[in-house]
Amino acid sequence: MSDTLSQLADVLEQRKQADPGESYVAKLYSKGLDAILKKIGEEATETVMAAKDGDRDKIVYEVADLWFHCMVLLADQGLHPDDVEKELQRRFGLSGLEEKAQRGQ
Fold it and tell me: Using alpha carbons only, what angle is made at residue 64 by residues 60 and 69, rounded to the nearest 5 degrees?
Protein backbone atom coordinates (compact mmCIF):
# COMPACT_ATOMS: atom_id res chain seq x y z
CA MET A 1 0.00 0.00 0.00
CA SER A 2 1.17 3.54 -0.61
CA ASP A 3 2.73 5.47 2.22
CA THR A 4 0.16 8.21 1.75
CA LEU A 5 -2.81 5.88 2.25
CA SER A 6 -1.14 4.24 5.24
CA GLN A 7 -0.37 7.61 6.82
CA LEU A 8 -3.93 8.78 6.18
CA ALA A 9 -5.30 5.61 7.77
CA ASP A 10 -3.21 6.35 10.87
CA VAL A 11 -4.51 9.92 11.06
CA LEU A 12 -8.11 8.74 10.65
CA GLU A 13 -7.64 6.34 13.57
CA GLN A 14 -6.27 9.18 15.70
CA ARG A 15 -9.26 11.36 14.82
CA LYS A 16 -11.53 8.88 16.60
CA GLN A 17 -10.23 10.43 19.83
CA ALA A 18 -10.37 14.04 18.61
CA ASP A 19 -12.84 16.72 19.57
CA PRO A 20 -15.67 16.88 17.01
CA GLY A 21 -15.58 20.66 17.35
CA GLU A 22 -12.00 20.73 16.12
CA SER A 23 -11.85 17.94 13.53
CA TYR A 24 -13.99 17.36 10.45
CA VAL A 25 -13.37 13.61 10.65
CA ALA A 26 -14.14 13.45 14.37
CA LYS A 27 -17.37 15.30 13.62
CA LEU A 28 -18.26 12.72 10.94
CA TYR A 29 -17.53 9.89 13.37
CA SER A 30 -19.69 11.53 16.03
CA LYS A 31 -22.62 11.82 13.59
CA GLY A 32 -22.46 8.08 12.92
CA LEU A 33 -22.54 5.71 10.01
CA ASP A 34 -25.42 7.35 8.15
CA ALA A 35 -23.53 10.66 7.92
CA ILE A 36 -20.43 8.91 6.60
CA LEU A 37 -22.47 6.99 4.03
CA LYS A 38 -24.21 10.19 2.94
CA LYS A 39 -20.83 11.83 2.31
CA ILE A 40 -19.69 8.83 0.25
CA GLY A 41 -22.87 9.09 -1.83
CA GLU A 42 -22.32 12.80 -2.37
CA GLU A 43 -18.70 12.31 -3.36
CA ALA A 44 -19.58 9.44 -5.71
CA THR A 45 -22.15 11.65 -7.43
CA GLU A 46 -19.64 14.50 -7.74
CA THR A 47 -17.13 12.04 -9.22
CA VAL A 48 -19.65 10.92 -11.83
CA MET A 49 -20.47 14.54 -12.70
CA ALA A 50 -16.79 15.43 -13.07
CA ALA A 51 -16.26 12.46 -15.36
CA LYS A 52 -19.30 13.42 -17.47
CA ASP A 53 -17.80 16.92 -17.81
CA GLY A 54 -14.48 15.42 -18.91
CA ASP A 55 -12.47 17.71 -16.62
CA ARG A 56 -9.40 15.63 -15.73
CA ASP A 57 -8.32 17.83 -12.81
CA LYS A 58 -11.80 17.79 -11.33
CA ILE A 59 -12.01 14.01 -11.74
CA VAL A 60 -8.80 13.60 -9.74
CA TYR A 61 -10.04 16.04 -7.10
CA GLU A 62 -13.40 14.29 -6.72
CA VAL A 63 -11.91 10.78 -6.69
CA ALA A 64 -9.55 11.94 -3.93
CA ASP A 65 -12.60 13.12 -1.94
CA LEU A 66 -14.36 9.81 -2.60
CA TRP A 67 -11.34 7.75 -1.54
CA PHE A 68 -10.92 9.90 1.58
CA HIS A 69 -14.49 9.36 2.69
CA CYS A 70 -14.29 5.64 1.90
CA MET A 71 -11.23 5.51 4.15
CA VAL A 72 -13.22 7.24 6.89
CA LEU A 73 -15.81 4.47 6.49
CA LEU A 74 -13.13 1.78 6.72
CA ALA A 75 -11.72 3.29 9.91
CA ASP A 76 -15.20 3.70 11.37
CA GLN A 77 -15.84 0.00 10.76
CA GLY A 78 -12.52 -1.11 12.25
CA LEU A 79 -11.03 -1.88 8.85
CA HIS A 80 -7.81 -0.72 7.19
CA PRO A 81 -6.89 -0.02 3.57
CA ASP A 82 -4.70 -3.13 3.80
CA ASP A 83 -7.92 -5.15 3.96
CA VAL A 84 -9.05 -3.70 0.64
CA GLU A 85 -5.61 -4.18 -0.88
CA LYS A 86 -5.66 -7.87 0.11
CA GLU A 87 -9.04 -8.28 -1.59
CA LEU A 88 -7.75 -6.59 -4.74
CA GLN A 89 -4.69 -8.85 -4.70
CA ARG A 90 -6.97 -11.87 -4.38
CA ARG A 91 -8.84 -10.74 -7.47
CA PHE A 92 -5.72 -9.91 -9.48
CA GLY A 93 -5.44 -12.12 -12.52
CA LEU A 94 -9.09 -13.17 -12.41
CA SER A 95 -11.45 -11.91 -15.03
CA GLY A 96 -14.37 -9.95 -13.67
CA LEU A 97 -16.65 -12.75 -14.81
CA GLU A 98 -14.60 -15.37 -12.95
CA GLU A 99 -14.53 -13.29 -9.76
CA LYS A 100 -18.28 -12.72 -9.92
CA ALA A 101 -18.90 -16.46 -10.48
CA GLN A 102 -16.82 -17.28 -7.39
CA ARG A 103 -19.18 -15.12 -5.36
CA GLY A 104 -22.12 -17.12 -6.69
CA GLN A 105 -23.78 -14.18 -8.42
Answer: 150
